[in-house]
Write a structure and sequence with these properties.
Length: 173
């Protein structure tokens, strides 16, 4: 069975939470599960494009998508990069783990660091993206790496300072 969403967690109705938050709880339940209940991979992209691709392949369709133009101080997700040699590479995005207060802090910080062009070759899809100088170090908890080098089940834990021995993840060349 494929579990797409979680409506109740630990006896609490969580339907009012955003899909990304509910999925985070679902992932935590299925983290070590290799049995009959599985969690499908999350696909970043435009909902209509994904739906058309699913239809072309004879799949049942897609379940859920999330627009977050008004959520968490306007931040729907953060685009993540890791260092590879002397460059940065796109490793996915994170849309869970931050609250209204730290999302507002995140949004105000990048406003001072905006740039016109991306720092990484971005292979995802998105609208209204804001690119910033790669000077912020985010602590990200994740479940695994995907076969194409992206983080699976990423959750934002906070910003780190270089002064507290925070390091940027270095991928092998």
């Amino acid at each position: 069975m494929m579990a797409f969403d979680l409506l109740y967690f630990d006896g609490h109705d969580i339907r009012s939470l955003e899909l990304s938050a509910r999925r985070y709880f679902l992932e935590s339940l299925l983290r070590d599960e290799e049995g009959a209940v599985r969690l499908p991979d999350e696909i970043d992209g435009d909902g209509m494009d994904i739906f058309e691709a699913a239809r072309e392949h004879g799949l049942e369709g897609i379940v859920g998508y999330e627009q977050s133009g008004v959520a968490r101080a306007g931040i729907g997700s953060l685009i993540l990069a890791a260092r590879k040699a002397n460059d940065y590479v796109y490793v996915g995005s994170v849309g869970t783990g931050f609250n209204e207060q730290n999302a507002d802090q995140l949004r105000r910080m990048p406003d001072r660091l905006k740039r016109k062009r991306p720092t990484v070759e971005y292979t995802g899809r998105g609208k209204n993206l804001v690119w910033v100088q790669p000077t912020l170090i985010a602590e990200i908890e994740y479940r695994a790496w995907t076969h194409d080098g992206k983080l699976r089940a990423a959750s934002y834990k906070g910003l780190r300072d270089v002064q507290d021995n925070a390091a940027i993840y270095e991928m092998e060349s």
